[in-house]
């Protein structure tokens, strides 16, 4: 038999101010909890389905000792009869919330907490979700119940920005659709999602590709890339080596900056990039050319640092660091009276991401390598879902020959 606490009188309980839990008796497990700040509240400590629970019964100023004991007895009776009072309370709150309607802003907050916060590993992406919906959706539908949101409401959000901020508007639509899908799954709305594009909004808004002005990343011209690469080899420092490795593999900046030694196999001359470092969130194998392997063999390794190309402080290099190398290369050329390294179409100075376009143009215009092989090398999504399901391989060894040809080309060994 558990030891019973003495049954305190109301005046005795009123005088309890020492921080901690004080058993007040009358009902087993009933305590007055006093915080370090002096706040006091009632707590019932019980075992529910084998787990210890601390069930709040209200603030001391709002609930009398007699009322707290009555509530505690009621709770214990429910537990004895097999009812979880905490689960019962949550269900009642959910039913009440459903009856009064869940607003879009509240739906987003719950969806964010339940799914997005753990699903989106990049803090920047999480902030983009919140920022776009707060800026564009909330003023129109933020306070509206999700079960009352219509196609007209979604159009009212999108139309003002559809032709002027098309890419942003497209993401806003997708994010509204996902919040409303979650709302339907949780029982807060029914029927067709009003933010659905196919068969719905696509009949009312022009296709994004028809109104969006595509601004490509400035790229080094094919005929200039050999000279550009030669200039890059005169540059010292980790950032220059990282940019060299990026060029040899036609990689994205993120993949290079996050690359770790454990991802590299010198035996098979392969780089296995994990899904979390890839834009498409799929693992990607990269066949490393002889020049890429040689670069890694000569690269210094820093004690306690797993990164191939760490920053000066040992952490992950910033995207701006790679861009700065290219900017300095361009400016040095201009200072010497040359035109620098400009995109042949936009006439803007080339940037690291544009090197992927240079590689793609080289494959298409200067080689017989298949288009799909280049797309796989760039880790682009290829074909329909069915086509991707049937194409199980990643053409690794065929791509190895292509990447060796690319390394030879930019090194000036093969001017094909």
Automatic annotation (TrEMBL):
InterPro entries: CB, DNA_brk_join_enz, Integrase-like_cat_sf, Integrase_catalytic, Integrase_DNA-bd_sf, Integrase_DNA_bind_dom, Integrase_recombinase_N, Phage_int_M. Residues 102-184 form the Core-binding (CB) domain. Residues 215-403 form the Tyr recombinase domain. The keyword DNA-binding applies. Belongs to the 'phage' integrase family. PANTHER family: PROPHAGE INTEGRASE (PTHR30629), PROPHAGE INTEGRASE INTS-RELATED (PTHR30629:SF2). This is Site-specific integrase.
């Amino acid at each position: 038999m558990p030891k019973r606490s003495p049954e305190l009188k109301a005046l005795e309980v009123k005088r309890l101010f020492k921080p901690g839990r004080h058993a007040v008796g009358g009902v087993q497990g009933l305590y007055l909890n006093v915080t370090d700040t002096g706040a006091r509240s009632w707590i019932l400590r019980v075992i529910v389905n084998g787990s210890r629970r601390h069930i709040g019964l209200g603030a001391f100023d709002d609930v009398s000792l007699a009322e707290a004991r009555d509530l505690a007895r009621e709770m214990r009776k429910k537990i004895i009869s097999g009812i979880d009072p905490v689960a019962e309370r949550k269900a009642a709150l959910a039913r009440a919330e459903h009856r009064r309607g869940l607003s879009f802003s509240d739906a987003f907050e719950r969806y964010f907490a339940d799914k997005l916060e753990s699903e989106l590993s990049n803090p920047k992406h999480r902030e983009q979700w919140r920022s776009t919906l707060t800026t564009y959706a909330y003023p129109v539908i933020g306070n509206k119940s999700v079960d009352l949101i219509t196609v007209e409401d979604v159009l009212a959000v999108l139309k003002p920005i559809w032709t002027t901020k098309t890419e942003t508007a497209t993401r806003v639509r997708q994010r509204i659709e996902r919040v409303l899908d979650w709302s339907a799954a949780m029982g807060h709305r029914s029927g067709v999602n009003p933010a659905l594009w196919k068969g719905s909004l696509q009949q009312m808004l022009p296709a994004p590709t028809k109104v969006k002005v595509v601004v490509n990343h400035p790229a080094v011209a094919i005929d200039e890339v050999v000279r550009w690469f030669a200039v890059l080899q005169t540059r010292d420092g980790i950032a220059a080596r990282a940019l060299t490795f990026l060029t040899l593999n036609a990689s994205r900046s993120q993949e290079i900056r996050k690359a770790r030694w454990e991802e590299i196999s010198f035996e098979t001359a392969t780089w296995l990039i994990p899904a979390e470092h890839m834009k498409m969130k799929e693992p990607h194998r990269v066949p490393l050319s002889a020049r890429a392997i040689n670069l890694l063999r000569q690269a210094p390794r820093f004690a306690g640092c797993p990164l191939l190309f760490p920053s000066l402080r040992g952490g992950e290099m910033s995207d701006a660091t790679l861009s700065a190398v290219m900017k300095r290369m361009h400016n040095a050329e201009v200072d010497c009276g040359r035109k620098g390294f400009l995109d042949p179409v936009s006439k803007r100075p080339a940037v690291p991401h544009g090197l992927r376009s240079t590689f793609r143009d080289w494959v298409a215009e200067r080689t017989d390598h298949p288009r799909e092989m280049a797309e796989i090398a760039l880790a682009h999504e290829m074909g329909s879902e069915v086509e991707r399901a049937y194409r199980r391989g990643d053409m690794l060894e065929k791509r190895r020959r292509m990447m060796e040809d690319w390394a030879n080309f930019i090194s000036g060994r093969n001017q094909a």
